[in-house]
Amino acid sequence: MQDFKTLLDAASDYSEFVAGGTEEDSKALRHFEALANAALPDDVISKLSRLPGSYSILVAAEMWCPDCHKNLPVIHAVAASAPAIRLGIVTRDKAEAIFKAHFGVDKVKIPFAVVLDENATPLGQFIERPKTAIGKNGEVSESYKNGELLADTAREVTSIFPEK
After folding, report:
1. Average pLDDT of the residues in 39-59
2. Which CATH number characterizes residue 148's domain?
3. Would 137 be classed as within a structural domain?
4. By the number of CB atoms within 10 A of the CB, which of 22, 34, 71, 135 ranks highest?
C-alpha cells in the first residue's frame, strides 16, 4: 500500500533512531538491548529462520517512551534475526494520520509496530506492550516494568508473520 511504502521510505533504521535520542533515553534502550537477544526464545528464532518471502516492520515510536525503551530492542532483535525482515522507525507524528485511518484507532499508542508483506500490505500489529503485561484490573504488571516479558513481545510480533 502506497501510504505504508511512503512511511517506510522516510523511516530511520534502528541505529539512526537510537542516535537521535538523549543520553538518558539511549542508556535506557541499551539496557533492554542487553536483555533482548537473550529474550528471543528458540521457537521465535526457528520461525524467523523459515519465513517465506520478505517483510518489513514499520514502527511508530518516540525515544522518550518507556514502552519503546523496552519493546524496540526486542523488535529490532526479531528483525535482525531474519534477513527477510527490514525494520523502519518513524515518529508518531509522521505515522499518526495513516495509522489512525487504516487501523481505526483514536490514538496511536507507541510503540505501534506493523508487520508488512513485500507489497507493504499490513499483516498485523503489535501495540504498546504484550498482552501479558496487563493484569486482571487493567494495571501494568511489575514483571513487564522490570523487563521480564521481553520474550512475550518477541512471540507476539513473530506470531504476525505467516508460517512456511
Report:
1. 93
2. 3.40.30.10
3. yes
4. 71
Amino acid 136: pLDDT = 86
Number of domains in the chain: 1
Q: What pLDDT is stored for residue 1 in this prediction?
A: 61
The DSSP string of 7-74 is: HHHH-B-HHHHHHTS-HHHHHHHHHHHHHHHHH--HHHHHHHHT--S-EEEEEE--TT-HHHHHHHHH
Q: Which of 164, 6, 154 is nearest to 76 (CA)?
A: 154
Q: Which three cell numbers stand for residue 92?
A: 508518531
Average pLDDT score over residue span 93-111: 95
The answer to whether 129 touches 140, Cβ cutoff 8 Å, is yes
| Residue 155 to residue 152: CA distance in whole angstroms | 5
Q: Is residue 164 part of a domain?
A: no
Distance CA 73, CA 32 (A): 6
pLDDT, residue 99, reads 96
30 inside domain: yes
Q: Residue 114 pairs with which residues in a beta bridge?
A: 58, 125
Q: What is the C-alpha separation between 140 and 148, in angstroms, rounded? A: 12
Structural domain range at position 72:
2-159
